[in-house]
């Protein structure tokens, strides 16, 4: 086969693949199509050994309720937006990043210059940990919270003070404020908190941030904020708009169900955003994530439906925890609950795995018998409820 014939075969395969991944095709058809095009490319003489596996072995039979993924999947409008842009990946994405930044700015009431967009929120969290080490090296946060900033800061040599949770398993803002000194660089608040799912009162958090940010920058991680019952009243981006020394971090991995596509952003003082943005974006942001993110932001009906569906599944886990008389963090507001299983967390994980359910196989210091359990689809959550009754009854 000559080069022209080979290219014709590749182009034909590509067109067939694009046609096959329409919205009605579903995941099975997508996998089949990818496998098919790989075969066509090899038949055309193209070396494909360097390609990632088209069908990675993640289907081990377990229901995965361990990573707070949104099992309901992304907006169909987001999927369609990605599909329409599959052949437009040749350019770097700086201009598109600016479009999304402006869109976020309009939604949050801030300026586009105050926004940093990255491939997922993880670069922001670890970049911020690095910022802490270069600006005083001291962080105050809570026990049993998301590790991105505090563990990253510890790894880089920062001094991290962990304040115990309040009795209701929320951030103890009074105790945290008491731990802040003139030498403190930053305070990290995850709201809703991961792993507990609990939230602090919005008005109390606003007042706290206004006071504390006069001494140290306040970083509020709102990864799950859009899942909360009182969204958007709980958001704190107004603090940045009003000039307070506050950073807000968000992700498209949770309610937007784009964990595999990687898109996140932070809202912060403009000069800080300029410095951190240039470092964190590096070669640019995933183009398909950008177009999907914008489409998902506009799909308000889907977001409202998603919030309701997640709450329905979350309440199933709350109900079974009550039935089994297992303590749990009250009033969870993410897509998970945090429950005392009455046994070492690794033993609980093993027992749940034997029932076909994967839960977090680790714990947070001081909570060795507690486990975070994510919600899934109705069928997955129902299977989890059945497994919990078998393991804990």
Write a compact overview of the structure shown.
With 393 residues, the protein is of the alpha/beta class. It has helices at 3-20, 26-43, 76-84, 94-108, 122-133, 148-155, 173-179, 202-212, 238-241, 270-281, 287-298, 300-323, 345-354, 378-392; strands at 63-64, 115-118, 138-142, 159-163, 186-190, 217-221, 246-251, 264-267, 336-340, 357-358, 370-374. The strands form 3 sheets. Strands 2-8-7-6-5-3-4 form a 7-stranded mixed sheet, with helices on both faces. Strands 1-10 form a two-stranded parallel ribbon.
Summarize the structure in words.
The chain is of the alpha/beta class. 45% of the residues lie in helices and 12% in strands. The protein has 14 helices and eleven strands. The protein has helices at residues 3-20, 26-43, 76-84, 94-108, 122-133, 148-155, 173-179, 202-212, 238-241, 270-281, 287-298, 300-323, 345-354, 378-392, and strands at 63-64, 115-118, 138-142, 159-163, 186-190, 217-221, 246-251, 264-267, 336-340, 357-358, 370-374. The strands form three sheets. The protein has a seven-stranded mixed sheet with strand order 2-8-7-6-5-3-4, sandwiched between helices. The chain has a two-stranded parallel sheet with strand order 1-10. Helix 9 links the parallel strand 6 (217-221) and strand 7. Helix 4 (94-108) runs parallel beside helix 11 and helix 5 (122-133) crosses helix 6. The protein is globular.
User: Which regions are unreliable across 5 or more consecutive residues at pLDDT < 50?
Assistant: 1-33
Q: What is the element string, with H for helices and E for strands?
A: HHEHHEHEHEHEHEHEEHHHEHEEH
N-to-C span: 66 Å
**What would you call the structural class?**
alpha/beta
Strand order of the largest sheet: 2-8-7-6-5-3-4
Give helix % range: 40-55%
Task: Indicate the mean pLDDT.
Answer: 89
Shape: globular
Estimated share of beta-strand residues: 5-15%
Sheet with most strands: 7 strands, mixed
Q: For the CA atoms, what is the radius of gyration? A: 23 Å
- Write down how many β-strands occur, each being a DSSP E stretch of 2 or more residues: 11
Question: What is the number of helices?
Answer: 14
């Amino acid at each position: 086969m000559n080069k022209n014939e080979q290219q014709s075969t590749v182009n034909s395969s590509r067109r067939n693949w694009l046609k096959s991944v329409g919205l009605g095709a579903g995941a099975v058809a997508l996998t089949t199509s990818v496998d098919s095009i790989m075969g066509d490319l090899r038949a055309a003489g193209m070396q494909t050994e360097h390609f990632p596996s088209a069908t990675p072995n993640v289907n081990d039979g377990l229901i995965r309720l361990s990573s707070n993924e949104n099992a309901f999947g992304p907006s169909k409008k987001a999927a369609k937006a990605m599909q329409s842009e599959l052949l437009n990946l040749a350019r770097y994405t700086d201009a598109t990043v600016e479009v999304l930044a402006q869109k976020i700015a309009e939604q949050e009431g801030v300026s586009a210059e105050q926004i940093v967009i990255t491939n997922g929120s993880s670069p922001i969290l670890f970049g911020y940990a690095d910022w802490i080490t270069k600006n005083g090296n001291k962080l105050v946060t809570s026990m049993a919270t998301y590790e991105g900033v505090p563990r990253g800061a510890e790894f880089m040599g920062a001094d991290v003070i962990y304040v115990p949770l309040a009795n209701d398993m929320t951030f103890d803002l009074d105790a945290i404020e008491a731990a802040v000194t003139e030498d403190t660089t930053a305070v990290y608040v995850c709201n809703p908190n991961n792993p507990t799912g609990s939230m602090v009162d919005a008005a109390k958090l606003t007042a706290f941030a206004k006071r504390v940010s006069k001494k140290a920058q306040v970083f509020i991680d709102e990864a799950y904020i859009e899942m909360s019952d009182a969204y958007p009243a709980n958001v704190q981006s107004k603090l940045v708009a009003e000039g307070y020394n506050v950073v807000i971090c968000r992700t498209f991995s949770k309610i937007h169900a784009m964990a595999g596509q990687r898109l996140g952003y932070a809202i912060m003082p403009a000069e800080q955003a300029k410095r951190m943005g240039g470092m964190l974006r590096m070669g640019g942001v995933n183009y398909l994530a950008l177009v999907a993110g914008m489409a998902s932001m506009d799909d308000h009906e889907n977001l409202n439906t998603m919030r309701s569906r997640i709450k329905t599944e979350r309440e199933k886990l709350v109900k079974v925890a009550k039935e089994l008389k297992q303590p749990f963090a009250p009033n969870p507001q993410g897509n998970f609950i945090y429950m005392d299983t009455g046994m070492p967390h690794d033993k609980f994980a093993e027992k749940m795995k034997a029932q076909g359910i994967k839960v977090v196989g680790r714990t947070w210091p001081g909570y060795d018998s507690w486990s975070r359990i994510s919600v899934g689809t109705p069928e997955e959550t129902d299977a989890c409820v059945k497994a919990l009754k078998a393991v804990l009854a």
